[in-house]
């Protein structure tokens, strides 16, 4: 199923970003929001995979918003300003362009996964579920080698807060994937355990591969289908 594309321009934190929205139909449909969306589509064949799943009725029809990264290292590094913009500017702009059924599901990798978790925790009620791949959930014990990253301390503060929390007001289903031999596997194991204890129903699937879009594309299935069926079953 080829589907069609719409486009919406959104001004975010002083920059204009162009979001492409893939749709297999015209009615009100669930929405998957992909951070680093153009890269996911070009290098991980995201919309092609979605079209095949819809065509063989493995998933109900749904849309995908391919959100470009903008100032990636700044916006995706647990930025409260970006999290607010995502939930209060980007998502509403998408809803104005197309009919969206229910709350969206977020998809992201590396810093893009981190940014989705920050937004979901800071703005409860914004997402129905999260699919997080190789999240950059830095903790000093495992990730001190990342300390040269400009926003390392901000990430560590956010992650520490999540790991130490006993609960959260809006625990949503979370599916995580991470290559068992990549550096982020240790912090992803910690994060999956913490979210699970807080009621998120988090599952971490350890996969082969590396920290790249080709590996993340290979790891989408069957885990993404499992999450979307779980979240969208009542729609």
Short description:
By secondary structure, the chain is an alpha/beta fold. It has a single domain, classed as Alpha/Beta hydrolase fold, catalytic domain (Rossmann fold, 3-Layer(aba) Sandwich), CATH 3.40.50.1820. It is built from 10 helices and 8 strands.
Q: Could you please describe the fold and organization of this structure?
A:
With 235 residues, the protein is of the alpha/beta class. It has one domain: Alpha/Beta hydrolase fold, catalytic domain (Rossmann fold). The chain has helices at 37-44, 46-55, 72-75, 80-97, 111-122, 140-143, 152-164, 185-197, 213-218, 223-232; strands at 4-12, 15-23, 31-35, 63-67, 105-109, 129-133, 174-179, 203-207. The protein has an eight-stranded mixed beta sheet, with helices on both faces. Helix 4 (80-97) crosses helix 5. 44% of the residues are buried.
Layout of secondary structure:
Layout: E1 4-12, E2 15-23, E3 31-35, H1 37-44, H2 46-55, E4 63-67, H3 72-75, H4 80-97, E5 105-109, H5 111-122, E6 129-133, H6 140-143, H7 152-164, E7 174-179, H8 185-197, E8 203-207, H9 213-218, H10 223-232
Parallel strand pairs: 3-4, 3-5, 5-6, 6-7, 7-8
Antiparallel strand pairs: 1-2, 2-4
Helix pairs in contact: 4-5, 7-8
């Amino acid at each position: 199923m080829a589907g069609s594309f719409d486009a919406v321009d959104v001004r975010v934190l002083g920059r204009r970003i162009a979001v492409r929205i893939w749709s297999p139909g015209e009615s009100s449909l669930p929405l998957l929001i992909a951070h680093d969306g153009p890269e996911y589509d070009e290098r991980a064949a995201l919309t092609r995979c979605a079209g095949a799943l819809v065509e063989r009725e493995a998933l109900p029809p749904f849309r995908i918003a391919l959100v470009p990264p903008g100032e990636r290292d700044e916006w995706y590094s647990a930025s409260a300003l970006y999290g607010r913009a995502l939930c209060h500017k980007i998502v509403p702009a998408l809803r104005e362009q197309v009919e969206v059924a229910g709350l969206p599901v977020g998809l992201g990798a590396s810093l893009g996964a981190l940014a989705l978790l920050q937004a979901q925790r800071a703005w409860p009620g914004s997402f129905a579920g999260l699919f997080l791949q190789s999240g950059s959930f830095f903790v000093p014990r495992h990730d001190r080698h990342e300390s040269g990253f400009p926003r390392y301390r901000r990430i560590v503060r956010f992650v520490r807060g999540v790991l130490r929390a006993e609960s959260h007001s809006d625990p949503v289903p979370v599916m995580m994937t991470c290559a068992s031999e990549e550096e982020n596997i240790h912090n992803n194991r910690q994060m999956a355990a913490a979210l699970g204890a807080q009621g998120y129903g988090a599952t971490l699937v350890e996969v082969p591969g590396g920290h790249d879009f080709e590996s993340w594309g290979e790891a989408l299935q069957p885990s993404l289908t499992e999450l979307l069926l779980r979240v969208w079953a009542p729609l």
